[in-house]
Amino acid sequence: MTTYSRHSGAERLTLIIMALCEQNLVTRSQLTVHFRVAERTIFRDLKKLQEMGLIQHKEGEVYTRTPATNLIMQTGILNTFADFTDVSKLLPLNQADFWKKMPVRVEQKRVTILGPESEHSVQVDLRKHFAQLENAIVNHRCCRIYYKDKTRRINPCRLSCLQGVWYLAATESHKLKTFTLSRIDWLDVLRDTFIPDATIENLLARQNTPWWSAEQTMVTLSVASAAAPYFCRRNLLPEQQIVLTHDDGSLTLTSTIAHQNQLFPIIRYWLPHLRIIEPVTWQRVLEEEIKNVLVL
């Protein structure tokens, strides 16, 4: 444990807990030396932590952490995981006992959170590719993949999961592309390395979507009044912005799109309540796709 300079009482309490998290137990004499304070000061600190239920007196001058301390450690990890999986905004993490009550919630099924269905092969795909791709991204290693009946040489940049589907952002011939993990038939991590493109790295940092692209299209849509409450309740489209609420309850909104596949499946789901106003060519493409399906 590092020798500390003078700290306030609150700082010492925090550092004692951190020390217990690292080494499971501490002694009064050890803390006295490291904090350079009188033993009676450390005794008062330890007594406060005992009253808080965070440490327990084992024997002599030895103190150990309690299950409550373990919970603090786990809560930090779980909160980090919640941020990593982007579910923090869905959970009441400001409640101090949220994680503590989780085992009971799971057992009694009083609260359920239903996520999107994943691809059937997701675990197989992750076992085959995830570790290799993550290592290649970290170490800037070039890769060779067989994808859509074609051998490709790529520079991997980022892994992302959306709606239960894993995607890989990578450059191919200096062009940023999106690859679906489940469609990668085989993968080789090459010895060759590449220098990350700062422009692409900044683009990936700004765009929270697997449809990464330097070319963005601003799309204007009309939403019928029957569907309007759903679009007011939450953003159903990428970078959705409500521009105008009409007297009849319908909406005009905009969405910034990198690829038509981001938008068209959503519109098809909400037909006949959604329509593309601009660009007009996108509405025509969508109508043609629907006509072809109806003909079949």
TrEMBL record:
Residues 9-64 form the HTH deoR-type domain. GO terms for molecular function: DNA-binding transcription factor activity. The keyword Transcription regulation applies. InterPro entries: CBASS_pafABC_assoc_protein, DeoR_HTH, WCX_dom, WH-like_DNA-bd_sf, WH_DNA-bd_sf, WYL_dom. Keywords: Transcription, Transcription regulation. It comes from Budvicia aquatica. This is WYL domain-containing protein.
